[in-house]
Specification:
Helix content is 40%, strand content 9%. It has 369 residues and is of the alpha/beta class. The chain has one domain: NADP-dependent oxidoreductase domain (TIM Barrel). β2, α4 and β3 form a beta-alpha-beta unit. The two termini are 20 Å apart. InterPro entries: AKR, NAD(P)_OxRdtase_dom_sf, NADP_OxRdtase_dom. This is NADP-dependent oxidoreductase domain-containing protein. One of its GO terms (biological process) is dehydro-D-arabinono-1,4-lactone biosynthetic process. GO terms for molecular function: D-arabinose 1-dehydrogenase [NAD(P)+] activity.
Length: 369
C-alpha cells in the first residue's frame, strides 16, 4: 500500500517499494491493487515498474486500479463519464502502461441510492448465517426490481459504467467492476448494471470473509447469479479488528466486537499463536463453497508495503496452503483441513465462537465517510 496513509514520504522515496514488489513477483504474487485515492500509490508503482521491467515485463503482472473516489468526503466522488475516462488515462500515464487489467468503481455505495437500510449497522444474515426473504424485499433485491433505478445516485453509476464498457471495448481495460462494503447494496448494483448494460467482470468485497464476519459466503451464489465473473476478497483482518492489537480508535466496529477481539487475542496467545496469523490463514481460503458448481474461487487481497510484510504473509500462506499441502477450497472456520492443522482449526472455531458469544459475529458496521 504505497500511499501516505500507511507509509512515510522517506519510505516511499526509498528502494523499499521496489524491494517489496520484486519480492512479491518472485513469490508469484502478480496482481496489484491500487487507486487514485491512495495518494501517491500509482506514481510510486509507475516508478517501480520502470525499475523491474528487465526482470518482470508488463505482461507478467496485472494492475487493478479504481475510478470515482478522489478524496475523503462525498464531494470527492465523481462518477461522470468525463472524469471516468480522464481517471483511466491518468492511471495509465502514472503507471506507464497502455492498458489496465482491471478497473473498479471505488466504494460504489457512497454514490448509489441506499435502499431499505442496506448501509446501516447490524446484521445482514440471521444467527444461522442465512438471508431472510423479508430483507431481500426491503433491500430492493426481488427479481422484478433488478432494473429499477432508484434515484440520481444509481444514474451516476450507470453513467460511469457506460464509459467503462466503452474503454473496455477500446482495449484500455480488460475487466471492469466495483469495490465496496455493504453486500445488499453491491448485489443490487450488480443486478442494475447487468440489466441496463451487461454483467460486470470483477468485484472486490472487503471484511465479509473473516473470522468476525462470514456473510459473503451466503451472498456468493447471488453474485454469481447476477453475472459477476470474479469476486476478490480483501481485508482478511477486518481493517485491523483481527490484527492482534486493539482495533484502531477510528474503527467503526461495535463495542461487543472490541471485547471479543481482546478475548480472541488471549485465546491465540495461550496456544503460542498470533490472532493475525490465524485470521490470515482462514482469510486465504476461497469463499466459494466446495459444493458450489458455479462461480470461481476467490483470490485474497492483502495490504503489503515492505519486504518484511511480504515475507510474513507468505509464511502464513505456505505453512497451510503451500508446503502444508492444504486446499484453498471454500470451507467454514474450524473445518476442512487435515489433522496436521489441528491448532489452526481449533483456534479458528474458538475465535468465531468468541465473536458469537459477544454478539459480534457477522456484525456489519454502518456506511460512512
Amino acid at each position: 500500500v504505497f500511499g501516505y496513509d500507511y507509509n512515510t514520504a522517506s519510505t516511499l522515496e526509498s528502494d523499499v517499494p521496489e524491494q517489496a514488489i520484486r519480492l512479491c513477483f518472485r513469490y508469484g504474487i502478480t496482481t496489484l491493487d491500487t487507486s487514485p485515492y491512495y495518494t501517491t500509490s500509482e506514481k510510486v508503482l509507475g516508478g517501480v515498474f520502470d525499475k523491474v521491467r528487465d526482470e518482470f515485463p508488463r505482461e507478467s503482472y496485472q494492475i487493478i486500479t479504481k475510478i470515482g473516489r478522489y478524496g475523503r468526503t462525498k464531494a470527492d466522488f465523481d462518477y461522470s463519464a468525463k472524469r471516468t475516462r480522464e481517471s483511466v488515462e491518468n492511471s495509465c500515464k502514472l503507471m506507464k502502461t497502455d492498458y489496465l487489467d482491471g478497473v473498479y468503481a471505488h466504494d460504489v455505495e457512497f454514490v448509489s441510492e441506499q435502499i431499505g437500510g442496506a448501509g446501516q449497522e447490524g446484521f445482514t444474515v440471521d444467527q444461522d448465517g442465512k438471508i431472510k426473504q423479508e430483507d431481500m424485499v426491503r433491500w430492493g433485491l426481488e427479481d422484478k426490481d433488478a432494473g429499477t433505478i432508484r434515484g440520481p445516485g444509481d444514474e451516476k453509476i450507470l453513467e460511469a459504467f457506460g464509459e467503462l464498457f466503452k474503454l473496455k471495448k477500446e482495449g484500455k481495460i480488460r475487466a471492469i467492476g466495483f469495490s465496496g462494503y455493504p453486500l445488499p447494496t453491491l448485489l443490487r448494483i450488480a443486478r442494475l448494471i447487468k440489466h441496463h448494460l451487461e454483467p460486470i467482470d470483477i468485484m472486490q468485497s472487503y471484511c465479509h470473509h473473516t473470522l468476525q464476519n462470514l456473510t459473503l459466503r451466503e451472498f456468493y451464489p447471488l453474485f454469481v447469479e447476477a453475472g459477476v465473473k470474479q469476486i476478490l476478497v480483501a481485508s482478511p483482518l477486518s481493517m485491523g479488528v483481527l490484527r492482534g492489537a486493539p482495533p484502531p480508535e477510528w474503527h467503526p466496529i461495535s463495542p461487543a466486537c472490541r471485547s471479543a477481539t481482546a478475548e480472541a487475542v488471549e485465546l491465540c496467545k495461550a496456544k503460542g499463536k498470533k490472532l493475525a496469523d490465524v485470521a490470515l490463514g482462514y482469510g486465504f481460503t476461497s469463499v466459494k463453497p466446495r459444493e458450489a458448481k458455479a462461480g470461481r474461487d476467490t483470490p485474497c487481497v492483502v495490504g503489503l508495503s515492505t519486504p518484511e510484510e511480504v515475507h510474513e504473509a507468505m509464511m502464513v500462506y505456505h505453512s497451510i496452503y503451500g508446503q502444508g499441502g492444504a486446499s484453498r477450497e471454500g470451507r467454514l472456520p474450524g473445518e476442512g483441513l487435515g489433522e496436521q492443522f489441528k491448532d489452526q482449526l481449533e483456534l479458528e472455531k474458538a475465535v468465531v465462537d468468541t465473536f458469537k458469544k459477544h454478539g459480534g459475529l457477522n456484525w456489519t458496521w454502518a456506511v460512512g465517510v
